[in-house]
TrEMBL record:
Gene Ontology terms for molecular function: 5-formyltetrahydrofolate cyclo-ligase activity; ATP binding; metal ion binding
EC number: 6.3.3.2
NCBIfam families, per database record: MTHFS_bact
Enzyme class: ligase
Cofactor section: Mg(2+)
Catalytic activity: (6S)-5-formyl-5,6,7,8-tetrahydrofolate + ATP = (6R)-5,10-methenyltetrahydrofolate + ADP + phosphate
Pfam families: 5-FTHF_cyc-lig
Species in which this protein is naturally found: Candidatus Ghiorseimicrobium undicola
Transmembrane domains' residue ranges: none
UniProt keyword Protease, yes or no: no
GO biological process per UniProt: folic acid-containing compound biosynthetic process; tetrahydrofolate interconversion
Binding site for substrate: 63, 68
UniProt-recorded name of the protein: 5-formyltetrahydrofolate cyclo-ligase
Residues that bind ATP: 17-21, 148-156
Length: 197
């Protein structure tokens, strides 16, 4: 019975989520590249000043696509600072996201599912989610309470479910990606804080 109710709730949320997702994605695509990079640098500065980042030994970043807050520079900088840096590895068949340490070499990445870069299979250095001190989380939108709206596949929601309780989570966003309230269901996961510019 509860499964039927959950499915109905999920279906009810779909149109509202799709409307928000479409509106924000079109704003992301319209943003000038120079503005995206300038804002990304400001976000990077705020992230690197966070106590949670400074004390973290192992940080998981997402590998940004061309419209998102740019993390490629952050990844290189974090490695130079001596952090162990990990990124997602998506297994489309298993509908699962794993996490692999990287060295920062561009040659170790290739386009994976959904045209998002991830480590090549012969560069996998998988670690359990419980080893992460900080997870930097992408989102199409966030709300003031930290709830996030992703691309709709549920990978990050399932992944965040498996993290250690002590692992900090931070979302990165441009100001227009933060809205008052997002519609969410029982499987949607929030982040502890959001950094924006």
């Amino acid at each position: 019975m509860s499964t039927i109710i959950e499915m109905e709730q999920k279906e009810d949320l779909k149109p509202a989520k799709k409307n928000i997702r479409d509106a924000i994605l079109s704003k992301l695509k319209l943003q000038e590249e120079e503005e995206r990079l300038n804002k990304s640098r400001r976000i990077e500065q705020k992230l690197f000043n966070l106590p949670e980042f400074q004390r973290a030994k192992t940080v998981m970043f997402y590998v940004s696509t061309k419209f998102e807050v740019d993390t490629l520079n952050m990844i290189k900088k974090a490695i130079k600072l001596g952090k162990r840096v990990a990124v997602p590895v998506v297994s489309k068949d298993k509908k699962q996201m794993l996490v692999s340490l990287i060295s920062g070499e561009a040659s170790e990445l290739e386009y994976g599912p959904y045209t998002i870069k991830q480590p090549k299979e012969d560069h996998f250095n998988l670690i359990p989610p419980q080893d992460l001190d900080l997870i930097v989380v992408p989102g199409v939108a966030f709300d003031k309470g930290g709830m996030r709206l992703g691309r709709g596949k549920g990978y990050y929601d399932r992944f965040l479910e498996s993290k250690h309780d002590q692992t900090a989570t931070v979302g990165l966003a441009f100001d227009f990606q933060i809205i008052q309230n997002l519609p969410y269901g029982c499987h949607d996961r929030s982040v502890e804080q959001i950094i924006s510019a």
